[in-house]
Specification:
alpha/beta, D-Maltodextrin-Binding Protein, domain 2, 2 domains, 14-stranded mixed sheet, 14 strands, about 20% strand, globular, ABC transporter substrate-binding protein, signal
């Protein structure tokens, strides 16, 4: 009897210890982020990123499972918040070690500017050296995955046969007598979205009819969205029929969940943008930021990025398909961040989106 009692006591003690350990590793989810790993860990990795927690969660959980003693604190922020936050922390002085250990953003131009202006630190490893030249600039900003920029439409509101396959066809649809896209089209608010500004300025660089297309959107009372998720919500609810310039990965995630949406890869050209990562110069634990970066660039990390987030592995984008225009990291991304060019572009954008002083829909 005493032996049985001792066995039961040991079993209860083991179960209690296991529950305590599990509680220490339990995920803590909030509207802005996710925390994984033991609460008392002395090794805390802080990640700030524009990637949706819902889409990126599987990647974070896999990294956490490989590093069970590490605590990971992930915060989702807009691309503009990521950029402004880095500048604000840098203003506190070079000795201040605060903020995230790694920043991941879909606004690769803003990330490149942070590097150019001295706000990032270099990292060299077998994983970074294996990247193609367009995916690594100065060993300070790195592509961790690519994402095509696409058009998306609600299949219940627009017949597939009428869906535009090129920007010229979209222009024709906007000009159609029956006005199928009047008050039913959306595009990025380039004044509030870093990736929206990047996509729109790349359109201007590549497409001579970009201005005419934007003006026709304005005449159709275009709505503007702050993020791809915002536009997808409107599309799912049927508030709009078509959205121009969305991230493929978020859209594919919605479709997999049953949303009545379809993707169009523009046949004239499809922009391929990168999610890029930097280790800030003021990172408290740059070593942990580098550890996470190397995981993301590893074979396992790239597989998880593709499987869980829907982004495309960097290696799969090295030889793009016909019509795909990869945008490489580098000084060329800084052109439209020049204050004069930026002001000129935004003036033209506002004039097109707000024809004759009209107000934009949000």
């Amino acid at each position: 009897m005493k032996s049985d009692f001792l066995k039961s006591l040991r079993l209860l003690t083991t179960l209690a210890a296991l529950l305590t350990a599990l509680a220490g590793h339990a995920a803590e989810t909030s509207a802005e982020g996710l925390t994984l790993g033991p609460a008392g860990s002395k090794n805390v990795l802080i990640v700030h990123a524009s990637n949706s927690v819902q889409v990126f969660r599987g990647v974070l959980e896999d990294f956490s499972s490989l590093n069970p003693g590490l605590r990971l604190e992930y915060t989702e922020l807009s691309t503009q918040e990521l950029y402004a936050g880095t500048l604000s922390r840098a203003a506190q002085g070079p000795a201040s070690k605060t903020g995230p250990d790694i920043i991941i953003s879909s606004a690769m131009d803003l990330q490149t500017k942070l590097v150019n202006d001295g706000y990032a630190q270099p990292h060299l490893s077998p994983e970074t050296r294996a990247l193609p030249a367009w995916a690594n600039w100065r060993d300070e900003v790195f592509s961790i995955g690519t994402d095509p920029i696409v058009m998306v439409y609600n299949t219940g509101k627009l017949a597939p046969g009428r869906a535009p396959r090129t920007r010229r066809e979209l222009l024709s649809l906007l000009q159609a007598p029956d006005q199928p896209l009047a008050s039913a089209i959306s595009t990025y608010d380039v004044e509030g979205s870093g990736i929206g500004y990047l996509a729109a300025t790349q359109d201007t660089r590549l497409d001579s009819m970009a201005g005419a297309l934007l003006a026709e959107m304005g005449r159709n009372r275009v709505a503007v969205h702050a993020s791809t998720e915002d536009a997808l919500d409107k599309l799912e609810r049927g508030e709009i029929t078509l959205a121009y310039n969305l991230l493929e990965s978020y859209t594919r995630h919605r479709i997999d969940q049953g949303a009545p949406l379809a993707i169009v890869y523009p046949q004239d050209y499809t922009l391929m943008l990168s999610r890029s990562a930097i280790i800030p110069r003021q990172a408290p634990r740059a070593d942990l930021g580098a550890k996470f970066l190397d995981y993301l660039l590893s074979a396992r990390g790239q597989e998880m990025v593709a499987r869980q987030s829907g982004m495309r592995p960097v290696s799969a984008s090295a030889n793009p398909q016909a019509g795909v225009r990869p945008v490489g990291l580098g000084v060329g991304l800084l052109v439209y961040l020049d204050p004069l060019k930026q002001r000129h572009f935004l003036d033209l954008w506002r004039a097109a989106i707000h024809p004759r002083g009209g107000s934009v829909q949000r």
